[in-house]
Design goal:
Distance between the termini: 39 Å
Number of domains: 1
Number of strands: 7
Helix content: 25-40%
Radius of gyration: 18 Å
Order of helices and strands: HEHHEEHEEEEH
Structural class: alpha/beta
CATH topology: Nuclear Transport Factor 2, Chain: A
Strand content: 25-35%
CATH class: Alpha Beta
Shape: globular
């Protein structure tokens, strides 16, 4: 169960105590509850290989940035990739571990970053932008990355250069 706080005044100590009690055991979720529900639905639809539900959560002019440097897809381009994958009955499962959300003052835009677990890729990160529409929050940009520990960065960069990636 994920919870969100409305603006109210608490002292720092009281706020820290409340956050410690409310933070879910499975991870830390901070920010707007509606954005969390949208992102949770986004990940669930991908895991279920539910094309209509998944693509229905993207804004019309959305962009998806994948883990490969060449993966920058418009919504329509990404929909073709998703349809092919989901058509084979294969989705992808990314489990949120922690998520941070910030909503603009006018409530029209939300920015997020999240740590995710994936069986194949391990610890990953998603970040992006959602826009509020008449139909609720929609993903305007999603960026999926595989964080590389600093101690391994030079080796990974060298291997990518050797392989011609990027």
């Amino acid at each position: 169960m994920r919870r969100s706080f409305r603006k109210f005044s608490l002292g720092f100590g009281a706020l820290a105590a409340v956050l410690a009690i409310v933070a879910p055991a499975t991870g830390q979720m901070h920010g707007d509850a509606d954005v969390h529900r949208t992102l949770d639905a986004f990940h669930q639809a991908a895991s279920d290989a539910d094309f209509d539900a998944y693509m229905g959560l993207f804004a019309d002019d959305a962009v998806f940035l994948g883990t490969d440097a060449t993966e920058r897809w418009s919504r329509d381009e990404f929909a073709e990739y998703v349809a092919a994958a989901f058509g084979r009955g294969r989705g992808w499962t990314y489990r949120p571990v922690a998520r941070w959300v910030r909503v603009s003052g006018d409530g029209a835009t939300a920015w997020f970053d999240e740590r995710l677990e994936n069986d194949s890729y391990g610890d990953t990160r998603g970040s992006g932008v959602l826009v509020r529409t008449a139909d609720g929050w929609k993903v305007a940009q999603y960026n999926l990355t595989i964080p590389i520990p600093n101690a391994l960065a030079r080796e990974v960069v060298a291997r990518i250069r050797e392989g011609g990636g990027g």
